[in-house]
Amino acid sequence: MPELPEVQALVDLLGQQAVGRVVARVDVAAISALKTYDPPVTSLAGLTVTGAARHGKFLDLDVDGLHLVVHLARAGWLQWKESLPSLPPKPSGKSPLALRVHLDNGTGFDLTEAGTRKKLAVYVVRDPAEVPGIARLGPDPLDPAFSPDVLREILEAHGRSQLKGVLRDQSVVAGIGNAYSDEILHVARMSPYKPSNSLSDEELKALWAAIRDTLTDAVERSRGLASGKLKAEKKSGLRVHGRTGLPCPVCGDTVREVSFADSSLQYCPTCQTGGKPLADRRMSRLLR
Ligand SMILES: [Zn+2]
User: The whole model's pTM is what?
Assistant: First the structure.
């Protein structure tokens, strides 16, 4: 799933390649991806792309005052194309193509979604805040205003809720998902189950620095890469996420996993939980 760094890289790419160009045509291949109808998606044709921005994990293309907002969800992606077929795509249940944007110089991009979940969401709005998910977003962790004090306030407000869930909640901090929350907690050497309101001043600073460093580093590594190379770059930079059974790059202990209904988390026991494996609720339920 693309998170803040990958979406930021796509925004940078659109800033370089699309801003200043005129939208020639938009092809909708999967109508289910389009969540708004007024203004119609066809109203983008003929307008100039004036900016590209990110709100949490949402990508926002400013097209002369209208906004094409995209949430890539779990399996969505944006593929930049130096040339696009001129014929409109045939609607097909099997094609991953959801939306195709043609620019006036023949370039453009495809929004695609692999698999059958169909969570990719595209909005055409006059103000990005009209998108419900954007209106609910918490502060952006790369915003200079995101200070340790801001983080302290957020964590205190969540009482004994576990850090892992709090960091992933988009209304708490915008842009961090399952992968980078694992990474941040590993860098900060904290258990994913640690209660949000239990951090000492020193721990709070460590967590804040881990958030900033992990995301800034991932943004730097993604910058300037072609859209097709971003996923591999993200994977190569991960220390614990998706690395169950492999050695922790810091201490060499084996990275462990806790499974949930539709996701899992990874962590290093030596670095994060005092050497003790966390209870896997799913496993312990099965064993009972
Ligand atoms: Zn370790």
Answer: 0.92
